[in-house]
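Bench notes, afternoon.
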Amino acid sequence: MVISGFQELKGRLHNLPPKAAVVAAAHDEHTLQAVFAARRDGLIHPILVGHREEILSIARSLEEELDPSQVVDAGDDPSCAARSVELIRSGAGAMLIKGMLQTGTLLKAVVNRESGIRSGEVMSHVAILDVPGYHKLLYVTDGGLVVAPDLEQKRHILKNALDFCRFLGYDCPKAAALCAVETVNPAMPETADGAALKQEAERGDFGPCLVEGPIALDLATDREAARVKGYRSPVAGDADILLAPSIAAGNLLGKSLYGLAGGEMAGVVLGAKAPITVNSRGATAEEKYWSILICAAMQ
């Protein structure tokens, strides 16, 4: 199974019960617009953590009914983060939504050794992109958390992304370990990493999947380019996951597909006990909605 875009994914969720979602620092209009839209669509049942009176005021201005029992009063950003993570840890919520606070503040509470909700060895970010020029959703990782991953970290980042796609219903996700060239070059360590990940996938280390590497972006996403260059791989021109060699490459790729290429983007952090949305505080309500949608889709 593949997913052609966000609208198709949304259509597949109409029979699923809403998930309890904890919103950290919910006193933000764009965040609440996205949260209330997701509530209307039956995706989530929100628990709003933050400045109580401000949250209630924004809800009134948006003409949304809100039971005060759904609002958990919290003061500064660290308090909002800690209280939200505590609710996830206690089982009150199945997903964590970032509101009007810095990503670092929220993740600091998430990875706290005593009170956090970290579950995997490496937490990683996946940008999910619905790009007009591509025939299905793209999953770009990691352009948000791991700065310069070594081979071991790439294994975890890849595994997180593959597990994520399988959560969404993919039977055999296709991943491309992106590099500038398709041959192993000692001067480019990421090429050796890509080849190693391909070998590990072929022996079954990552479960049902296809991994190609090293492979350039054009070959991973353009069948015609692969045909012209004589590059044969079931991943060529049909990749689901684009594994970036560094945070800089992943960040630039995600933002170029989102901005210059006119794509729509969602984002999620994996490797915790619950999926986490970490959209920029300046993100649109629509972008925040798509991130909520993706987390709600995880089974």
